[in-house]
Amino acid sequence: MKNLQAARVFENIAALMEISGESPFKVNAYRNAANTFASLTDDLEQLAARGELRSIPGVGEAIEKKTLEILETGTCGLYERLKQQFPLTILELLDLPGVGARTVRALYEGLGVDSLEALEKAARAGRVRQLPRMGAKAEQRILESIERLRARPSGIPIARALPLAEALATRMQGVPGVLQAVPAGGVRRFAELVPRVTVAVVSADPQEALQAFLREAGGTILESGPERAAVRLSGGEEAECFVGRPENAGAVLIRATGSEAHLHRLEALAAEMGYSFEGVTLLNPRGESLSCPDEESFYSALGMSPVPPELREDGGEVEAALKENLPALIQTSDLKGDLHAHTVFSDGSGTLEQMAEAARRLGYEYLAITDHSQALTVARGLTPERLSEQGRLIDAFNASGTDIRLLKGVEVDIRPDGSLDLPDESLAALDWVVASIHSHFALSRQEMTERAVRALSSPYVHVQAHPTGRLIGSRDPHALDVDALIEAAARAGKALEINSYPERLDLSAENARKAADAGVKIVVSTDSHHPAHLPKVSYGIGTARRAGLTAGDVLNTLPLDALLEWARSRR
Questions:
Q1: Of 395, 373, 547, 375, nearest to 460 (Cα)?
Q2: pLDDT value at residue 1
Q3: Rounded to whole angstroms, what are the CA distances from 24 to 28, 32, 34, 377, 385?
Q4: Homologous superfamily of 332-569 in CATH?
Q5: d(C-alpha 230, C-alpha 3), whole Å
Q6: Alpha helix (H) ranges present in 98-157?
Q7: What does the alpha-carbon distance between residue 412 and residue 433 come to, in Å, rounded to a whole number?
Q8: Gap between the Cα atoms of 564 and 476, Å rounded
Q9: Whole-angstrom distance between the N-terminal and C-terminal Cα of the chain?
Q10: Residues 6+ apart with CB under 8 A from 120
Q11: Could you tell me the residue ranges of all domains in the chain?
Q12: Which of 160, 175, 166 is nearest to 198 (CA)?
């Protein structure tokens, strides 16, 4: 599991560098490396042994050198120097809603605050207000943030859990006798937070497969039984493996995938039929194992249509499956393009041509180039003049005879009063306008709602991106009336986004379902900042499927001409 070890080191380096005041570009380089390594299914050690680290997107000489150090020693010189400057416990403070790197550094240098516990003590003693530009209100907000952090749902974010499950499954697939190994549990259902990482394994020798899991996963053994083993990984996460024979493969996958509520419904249904669903086996009334080589045969034995994993939450899916009335959920192959992507013009790291080629390889018809607008100076946001310059380059690209169409677009910032960061004449010249909030998160619920709703009233806006602003497990949603925003989008005929960035998945499945029920079109986009990010749309599709969305609910399943007609009709 060296991939995740390297990812953690680079993520900590990025956070410590940010606290130290290092340039955002250097910080982002290490953060991007962390994200890349965390989602990498290839084994870093094997890539390093073959001299292929540079083949990983975003890995240059500096990242390669430090990666080799980490693989050999578990750390690197830069990381050790940063830990001498700041204790690692200081990173706890970055989890606080509304507390950024500059504030963390001020608290450390001014008060010696180096942990959440130390900050709470300082705030309750009235010491935080003594710092420059703090005051009593800021001190109270910090105490409120600590309470919100403690109330935040626990679990492993899917952005970390799914790559870990994929890596474990890949390792298990190479074990002799293993016929199938797949991520299961909450990550297969695309739950945002999962209690543990789960893999399901089908093997001709289940006991040997479980022993192999214990070896491959490492860490501390928590359980080792005939059908399930569990460990505590070095990073603190719990991982489990369910295993069964080929004739029980369907039962193994269903048991390992869950949810507990869905499994209880299946167990009850089996009992009504005189069957018994125990562990990873479906038994008939005589106690004999029923052959279930796949999930379809298992559900068929219970008189049901197969239930997609994303719907297995006891939310009416069992009743729908018994009536053969499940929706035909959207699939990644239904998408015709991506409507939110960045380039080197702002804070992306791919050129127009590189982003277009990555989209073409996915079979897309179109890709909207939506670099940031001028208000986001940290991301080198575009002025009207630079936006026009980019538009001319996009026109030239499209005129070159390519088989993919780049759409002229922008991600325009929504100001605190709900107005937009670019003049109407600049927005009118574009094919696609994404509006979003990147600042002033501390507005009241009424102010934030009025801000977001007003932006949708612009005739030039097509979609509002990452509407609630949340980062799963690390930043709470804005104080926003989501129902009011959905109503406004429905009235204005505008779309809302499921942002596929794994840490966002915003809209959530729950809110996406509400929006679709209100007649609002959904856009599933990646917010890609690198060509390698475009395939991460699978996270957004997983969220859309969890919401029960079909291809008809999602705007970017439309072919190019139909999409452009929809966009023109909004104005």
A1: 373
A2: 64
A3: 6, 12, 15, 11, 24
A4: Metal-dependent hydrolases (3.20.20.140)
A5: 20
A6: 101-111, 116-124, 135-151
A7: 7
A8: 34
A9: 51
A10: 143, 146
A11: 2-151, 157-322, 332-569
A12: 166
The closest of 290, 311, 309 to 300, measured between CA atoms, is 290
Alpha helices (H) in 493-559, listed in sequence order = 509-517, 537-546
- What is the spatial distance between Cα 466 and Cα 463, in angstroms, rounded to a whole number? 10
The amino acid at 560: L
Q: Using the structure block, give the residue that is written with the tokens 């008189």.
A: 303
Which pLDDT tens digit goes with each residue over 40-55? 777 888 899 999 999 9
pLDDT at 438: 94
The sign one gets for the Cα dihedral 523, 528, 533, 539 is negative
pLDDT tens-place string over residues 123-154? 999 999 999 989 999 999 999 989 988 888 88
List, for residues 515-535, the tens digit of each pLDDT value. Answer: 999 999 999 999 999 999 999
- What pLDDT sits at residue 98? 79
Give the residue from 459, 480, 463 showing the smallest Cα distance to 563: 463
Q: What tens digit of pLDDT does each residue of 156-196 get?
A: 999 989 988 998 999 899 999 999 999 999 999 999 999 99
Separation of alpha carbons 233 and 197, rounded Å: 10
Phi and psi, residue 272, nearest 5°? -60, -30
Question: How far is residue 10 CA from its own chain's centroid?
Answer: 18
Average pLDDT over residues 274-300: 95
User: Distance (Å, rounded) from C-alpha 378 to C-alpha 374?
Assistant: 10
Residue 343, CA distances (Å) to 71, 96, 267, 347 in order = 31, 30, 51, 7
Helix (H) or strand (E) holding 360: helix 352-361
Q: What's the whole-number mean pLDDT along residues 333-355?
A: 97
Whether residue 274 has pLDDT greater than 90: yes
Topology of the domain comprising 157-322: Beta Polymerase; domain 2 (3.30.460)
Instruction: Please say whether the structural domain 2-151 has been given the CATH code 3.30.565.10.
Output: no
Mean pLDDT of 500-504: 95
Cα gap 74→80, rounded to integer Å: 11
Q: How far is CA 387 from CA 344, 359, 400, 411, 428, in A?
A: 13, 21, 20, 11, 12
DSSP string, 88-100: GGGGGGGGSTT--
- Would the pLDDT of 209 be above 80? yes
Q: Which amino acid is at 64?
A: E
**Token couple for 344:** 């080197």
Length of the chain: 571
Provide the 10 A C-beta neighbour count for residue 453. 20
The two structure tokens encoding residue 130: 């003594």
Percent of all residues in the chain with a pLDDT value above 90, rounded to a whole number = 84
Q: How far apart are CA 334 and CA 556, in angstroms?
A: 9
Could you give the CA distance from residue 461 to residue 370 in angstroms, rounded to a whole number? 12
Q: Which pLDDT value is given to residue 452?
A: 98
Which 3 state secondary structure label does DSSP give 454?
helix
Q: pLDDT tens, 412-464?
A: 999 999 999 999 999 999 999 999 999 999 899 999 999 999 999 999 999 99
Bridge partners of 369?
341, 408
Residue type, position 522, single letter:
I
Residue 345 identity (one-letter amino acid)? F
**Gap between the Cα atoms of 248 and 255, Å rounded:** 11
